[in-house]
Amino acid sequence: MLIKPEITENEVMAEIAEVLELEREEVEMASSLIDDLGADSLDLVDISFSLGKRFGLKLPTKTTLIVAQEMMTTDGVFTNQGKLTELGALLLQGSPNQYSEQDIQPNMNVDVLLSQTLVRHWYELCAHINHHPSQDGDTAIQEYLVEFFEKHGLDTNAA
């Protein structure tokens, strides 16, 4: 079995700095990609592609929240009226991105979730996928969600 080298925080910060055309010292693990580093939605796509290429991983094509909502048989479980539910916050806190309770809380406006994403969350996602047998982010998120749904007794649209 091929053992992949560990992904370091410094490597992730360096790659993000390169994509955003910043000096490496400007990027910290606690930096918000949008609020602190000025990334836009196209930059986030570039970051995902660049991190995947650098580490030989396939990063997810959709966020954990989007995939979870697509899997649900009913609406309003993870978000309600544009805000995270308690279960939605738990979903993200346990996700491969490893959001903390300080990062994500119930009743948080869904529109601000992207600005809450830190460099640390990208590092956690890359490290999680790197340790996953498939090294495929879509598969890793799908498996996380199946476990989460089973743990919380949720019905899904998934076959």
TrEMBL record:
<protein>
    <submittedName>
        <fullName>Acyl carrier protein AcpXL</fullName>
    </submittedName>
</protein>
<keyword id="KW-0596">Phosphopantetheine</keyword>
<feature type="domain" description="Carrier">
    <location>
        <begin position="3"/>
        <end position="85"/>
    </location>
</feature>
<keyword id="KW-0597">Phosphoprotein</keyword>
<dbReference type="InterPro" id="IPR009081">
    <property type="entry name" value="PP-bd_ACP"/>
</dbReference>
<dbReference type="InterPro" id="IPR036736">
    <property type="entry name" value="ACP-like_sf"/>
</dbReference>
<dbReference type="InterPro" id="IPR006162">
    <property type="entry name" value="Ppantetheine_attach_site"/>
</dbReference>
<dbReference type="Pfam" id="PF00550">
    <property type="entry name" value="PP-binding"/>
</dbReference>
